[in-house]
Structure formats: C-alpha cells, structure tokens
Amino acid sequence: MLGLELSTGVDGVVEKIEKLPTDLFAETLQAILVHLQDQNKAVDLIETCDKFQRAGINLDQKAVQDIIKLLSYYFRLAAKSNLSADVLVSKLTECSSKWSKPNLQLVHQFWTEHGALLHAHQEVLTMASIGQLIDIQWKLGMAVSSDTCRSLNSSFISVLMKIADTSGEVSYKSFEMTVQQFQNFYRQFKEMASVLETV
Questions:
Q1: Which portions of the chain are predicted below pLDDT 50?
Q2: 76 close to 37: Cβ distance less than 8 angstroms
C-alpha cells in the first residue's frame, strides 16, 4: 500500500511511536529532518536505540528502524508534494488511527518549522538530478520520399542516445537533424571541448 517495507504494519509502528516520551519523539523527528536535509548521512540507528533504552523504552533495532522508515517516508512525501502541516497530519491519520493528538501536534509543529526548507531542498535535488550519457549512436540518412517534405534527396543525421537517470534506469532518446543543424551542434561541441582544454 505505501511502497514501504516494515516488519510490522503501520499500526504496529505507530503503537511503538506512542510509547515514546514527547522529548524523545521530538529528538527523533529532528534527527530525521536533519538527515533528509542532507546535513547527516543517515539517522544513527544504534545511537537512537541507545537513547530509547536509556529512556526505558525497550525496542529492538528492527522496531526503531521501522519508526525511522515510516516518519522518513511521510516527510519525504510531504516535501515532494509540498504538503502543508495540516495535510501531512491528515495523511498520517489516514494511514493509522493509533496516533495520539499530542504526537500529531508535534509532527505538525516540526513540519510547520522545517517543511518549507525540506521542500526547497527536495526541489534542488530534483533539478540537480542529471542523467549520464552511456552511449551515442548516429547515422547519416537520405530522405527519398515524404508526404510533408518539400525537398527530397536531402541529407539528415539520426542520433540515438542511451541515458541512465539518477536511479539507474536506462532510457533512449532519438532525434534527427538537418546537415546545417548538425554543423551548428558540432560547433557547440567543439567550443565545449576547447573550454575543457583550458580547465
């Protein structure tokens, strides 16, 4: 349903969240938000488990990991979709009826304070996601018949590019250019090459 693997269902994870004291839940939310803003490589699972243990909350690593996964999932969803704090809280209550009002208010408060920044960070990541050119193939062709082309027997260049996006998925892009367009394309690549030589 969520596209999220949890060792127990969402209700089970929320029940574990509800065992946390307010200050510990707030610390966990803060750690997740810091991580999602790329200020930390990851939420330290061992450190979080230790904090829970010191507070008298006995949850195994899998349960703590599920809490982090669930909250991260909803914060990412809210950031990507630019959700308001009210909509985020309603999404949380849709996924589970086990949330307490104080914890939902805390999520609301944190998202109100940090949501815009996380959304802006998500936008930057989306804009910066650039694919990688894997292969380029080209061939010279000659138009010999066409319903729409006025000048037949004209040359064209057909290009096929193989591109991997940031997730590793491979796609193909193809296009055709007239000889004049290709010459302009070539000049631009030549300029890029000369600039690269000066670096």
A1: 1
A2: no
Q: Using only C-alpha atoms, what is the Rg of the chain?
A: 26
Is 75 exposed, middle or buried (CB count within 10 Å of its CB: 0-12, 13-18, 19+)? Answer: buried
Q: Which amino acid is at 111?
A: W
SS3 label, residue 148:
coil
pLDDT given for residue 144 in this prediction: 72
Q: Which 3-state string (H, E, C) describes 29-77?
A: HHHHHHHHCCCCCCCCHHHHHHHHHHCCCCCCHHHHHHHHHHHHHHHHH
pTM above 0.85, yes or no: no
**Distance (Å) of CA 101 to CA 120, 162, 179:** 28, 51, 67
Give the C-alpha separation, 68 to 32, whole Å.
7
Give pLDDT, residue 167.
58
- pLDDT tens for 141-178 read 887 766 665 666 778 889 998 887 665 677 888 888 88
Residue 14, C-beta contacts closer than 8 angstroms, at least 6 positions apart: 70, 96, 98, 99
User: CA quadruple 143, 144, 148, 149: dihedral positive or negative?
Assistant: positive
Whether 163 and 172 have beta carbons less than 8 Å apart is answered as yes
Cβ(166)–Cβ(131) below 8 Å: yes
> How far apart are alpha carbons 34 and 18 in whole angstroms?
22
